[in-house]
Amino acid sequence: MDHQACNDTTPARKAPQAAIGQVLIEALPYIRKFEGKTFVIKYGGSAMKDECLKNSFAQNVTLLRKVGINVVLVHGGGDAITKTAEKMGIKSTFVHGKRVTDSDMITIVQMTLAGKVNQDIVRLISEHGGKAVGVSGLDADTIQALPCHNAETLGLVGEVAAINTAYIDLLCNAGLIPVIAPIGFDDEGHVYNINADDAASSIAIALKAEKLIYVSDVAGIQAHDAILRTISKTQAADFIEQHVITGGMIPKVISAFQTLDGGVGKIHLIDGKCIHSILLEIFTHEGVGTQFIAEQGNDDNQ
């Protein structure tokens, strides 16, 4: 810092300095509250593609870890899988938004998710001063899977059967950030491609996480031309019945409340296209996304 700048007391400088100071002070009680807690973050969408957003995300995650919060990342990578498959002459097919995964495709999923995508995230966090470790769901039996209910159509697409938290806990206790590729396996050794949202939810429940944060391409739950800062289970049911919440948002909302029922403290849906959205959601009174709570009345932003 240029200390001479501190002697500049012009109104133009004092105003932004005061604003920055207020933001830092506002963050303090939240930092105290969440020290030693575990946040599971599902990382996907534009935040994984745009260089500026990728760097912002890595900075946010590193800061969370530096202030004593255990951070566990679960990432997607569907676009990267599709591009790799194209290069290898393999066509990607989807049914109801899920990738049909045969033996050739699961090899590409492993190679891409647990390889380049995973290691690029680890490298980026390291560049910003964090200490991350790439983890496949195959490592230390972390994600145990079963075939999905329509395996005849989707092939090697799996559902989470169990999460072994021992390895994740070991890494967090060492001050590291686990970066988990959502791949699992069953008792017979078959490897499965697992939806990243589902994997993040299961991991958050197994870790008894304080928060599960979905970093996506939507600003939150929209109702009546406004983003809801807080939504309870009762409100969500009403909005679904009234067709305020529709389409692909319905399963996301249902999944969020199932995760809450599983013992996770709060769920947050935030826009990864917003710079520093994680910090703004967690460390400010207003937040920037939608938080899901079990009952109305527990509606403080954090």
From TrEMBL:
The keyword Transferase belongs to this UniProt entry's keyword annotation: yes
Top-level taxon: Bacteria
Residues that hold substrate according to the record: 77-78, 99, 193
UniProt GO cellular component terms: cytoplasm
Signal peptide residue numbers: none
Membrane-spanning residues: none
EC assignment: 2.7.2.8
The UniProt record lists the keyword Magnesium: no
GO biological process terms on file: L-arginine biosynthetic process via ornithine
Aspartate/glutamate/uridylate kinase domain boundaries: 37-271
Record key words, sorted: Amino-acid biosynthesis, Arginine biosynthesis, ATP-binding, Cytoplasm, Kinase, Nucleotide-binding, Transferase
Subcellular location: Cytoplasm
Reactions listed under catalytic activity: N-acetyl-L-glutamate + ATP = N-acetyl-L-glutamyl 5-phosphate + ADP
GO molecular function, one term: ATP binding
Annotated site residue numbers, Transition state stabilizer: 42, 252
Pfam families: AA_kinase
Pathway where it operates: Amino-acid biosynthesis; L-arginine biosynthesis; N(2)-acetyl-L-ornithine from L-glutamate: step 2/4
Alphabetized NCBIfam families for the sequence: argB
PANTHER family: N-ACETYLGLUTAMATE SYNTHASE, N-ACETYLGLUTAMATE SYNTHASE, MITOCHONDRIAL
Family: Belongs to the acetylglutamate kinase family. ArgB subfamily.
Role played: Catalyzes the ATP-dependent phosphorylation of N-acetyl-L-glutamate.
The name this protein goes by in its record: Acetylglutamate kinase
Organism: Chlorobium phaeovibrioides
